[in-house]
Amino acid sequence: MKRIGFYVLVAIQVLFLVGMAIAYYVIDDVGETIKLQTLPVDPQDLFYGDYVTLRYQIEEIPDEKWLGDTDDTDGRIHVIVEQADDGFHQVVKASNQKLQASENQAKLTAAYRYYDAHSQTHHVNYGINRYYIEDNTGAQYEQSGEMEVTVAVAPWGHKKIEELK
Amino acid sequence: MNSSSIKNEARKWKEKGIISEEQRQQIVALYQEKDHNFLLLSFAGLFVGLGFLTFIASNWSVIPDLGRMAIILLFMLVFYVTGDIIYRKKSHAVGITFIVMGLFVFGAGIFLTGQMYNYMSFQATPFFIWSIVGLLLFVIYQHVALYIVAITITTVGQLYSAFVYQEFHLLLFLVLLLGFGHYTYHQARNLYGTLAAVSFIIQTMVLVFVGEQSYYWLIVYFLLLYVLGDVADRKRLTQPLTGISLLAIFLFTVIQVFILSSSYIKEQLSFSWSFFGCWLVLFIISSSVKYWKNKKMQYVDLVLFLPIVYLPFADMVYMLSLFLFSLGYLLIGYKEENQAMITVGTITFLISTLIAYVHLAWDFLDKSLFFFVGGILLFLLSFLLERKRRLVKKEAKGGEK
């Protein structure tokens, strides 16, 4: 009995870790694709070892698009994005409460970072600031300035960078 | 003689009616097989495993994601399965060591997989999952090492939640209360009680400091732990639970003496009915338990739990309560000739005196004079207390003869 219990528990742990990996690989098939524009990053910071650091326009949310409270903002926030005329997705609204996305809109989760009172923007983090690249290809990204990033978003909020141009 | 020949001999003795079956078993048990070679081999295996692990860790960045996954899973399975086999066939201690290694690989695996596959976490959920697995492993094997590891994971998880997310993780607290609490209560071991009490203190401190609560809610939580120890009605639990709780509230009171002398902090305090209500309920329970169990001497413990915060000159009243507590212990200890109580009373009395001295004399005395007088004061006190203690000890010994 003890032995069965133990091996069931071990199997659950294996399934849990494998499940985490599978959830990532199926984003390609079930996720929505959105296109994001990066902000220029200091080239010194950009290339760091085996990944590039990315910053996004949608990480800065102006006051007028913020619907939630401002005092209880630690942790998870919800952001609705929509494709603008230039092809990139832009923030429609954001809140620390759950939001409903209408058609042609995508729902993202982010972590709240801080409020910049000077520019009146809320800074958030989507957890997609690192893009791992193959060895010795860093130089080509270093020169490119603003880039276009294709991100797949799973219905359960999990994100994956598909392409970087 | 080795154990197998003893077994043979004992069987012969039993067949000839020299010893009973019970005695045969006792004799065989005296000569347990001691397989040192096996122990060495197990640790050799463990070291090679750890060597591999560090080698992989230093080359981690060049391994592709799927390869990393395979390595994590492989290591986890090898540790777990080897652990289970050794546990059943050879040695419990070594088997559990391997299982603990498996649990560590699982925990590291959650974080590494999360990092590889871009998971964002907003809470200490990885620690929650990890601690649940640890608890279940303890439930299966009931081994003390698993208890220590699992409750440590739970407590560290709560601290991680506090430092990384500035948040109190309720589920981790429930794992402690319902999970570990259940087994701690039913198995009533001193070590389990101590660890659970320490975890309780740490987690409630996180609750108070990162939550919206005023810091004096700690009085209620420490009192709750004290009451739990009192009503547990098992000596092996009462001792660590009330002991740790008293230690925590004593240190808390010492800190209170200093922070409440600042008028700024006093102005920040606001009276809270819910705090007072909770405190009153616990206080009534605690006093009634002591009354029913006829442990009236222990009322002195409750002096430290009084909610003095709101009173004017609270720092002075807190100082007074430190003295009341330590003098109470000394007097009761001498009266009942209880060495443990005298020791506690002596140490707390010395600390209380030091605190009072620092608090009152620091501003008035010249600094070198401050230390001189303080040192002489402590010398005198410890001399008097020690003489009294030896006297009591001598009398106690004399009485026994």
What's the structural blueprint in terms of helices and strands?
The complex is a heterodimer of chains A (165) and B (401).
Chain A lengths: L1 H24 L1 H4 L1 E6 L5 H4 E2 L2 E3 L6 E3 L13 E8 L5 E7 L9 E12 L4 E5 L4 E3 L5 H5 L5 E6 L5 E6 L1
Antiparallel strand pairs in A: 1-10, 2-3, 3-9, 4-8, 5-6, 5-7, 7-8, 10-11
Chain B lengths: L2 H13 L5 H10 L5 H23 L6 H25 L2 H25 L8 H17 L2 H22 L4 H18 L2 H21 L6 H16 L2 H25 L3 H6 L4 H20 L6 H4 L11 H23 L2 H23 L5 H34 L1
Low-confidence stretches of chain A: none
Count of separate structural domains of chain A: 2
Q: Kindly report the greatest chain-chain contact and the residue count on each side.
A: A-B, 32 and 34 residues
What fraction strand of chain B?
Answer: under 5%
Radius of gyration of chain A, taken over Cα atoms and rounded to an integer in Å:
19 Å
DSSP strand content of chain A? 35-45%
Based on DSSP secondary structure assignment, what is the total number of beta strands of chain B?
0
Helix content of chain A: 10-25%
Using only C-alpha atoms, the radius of gyration of chain B works out to 28 Å
The helix-and-strand class of chain B reads: mainly alpha
On the 0 to 100 scale, the average pLDDT of chain B is 83
The largest sheet of chain A is: 5 strands, antiparallel
What form of chain B results from the Cα inertia axes?
Answer: globular
Helix content of chain B: over 70%
The dominant shape of chain A is globular
User: How many strands of chain A?
Assistant: 11
User: What strand line-up does the widest sheet of chain A have?
Assistant: 4-8-7-5-6
Report how far apart the termini of chain B are: 45 Å
Count every helix of chain B, treating DSSP H or I runs of 4 or more residues as helices: 17
What does this structure look like?
The complex is a heterodimer of chains A (165) and B (401). Chain A is of the alpha+beta class and 165 residues long. Chain A folds into two domains: 1-30; 32-164, no CATH class. Chain A is built from four helices and eleven strands; from the N terminus they run ααβαββββββββαββ. In chain A, β2 (47-48) and β3 form a beta hairpin. Chain A is globular. By secondary structure, chain B is mostly helical. Chain B has a domain at 299-401. Chain B has helices at residues 3-15, 21-30, 36-58, 65-89, 92-116, 125-141, 144-165, 170-187, 190-210, 217-232, 235-259, 263-268, 273-292, 299-302, 314-336, 339-361, 367-400. In chain B, α9 (190-210) runs antiparallel to α10 and α10 (217-232) runs antiparallel to α11 (235-259). The two termini of chain B are 45 Å apart.
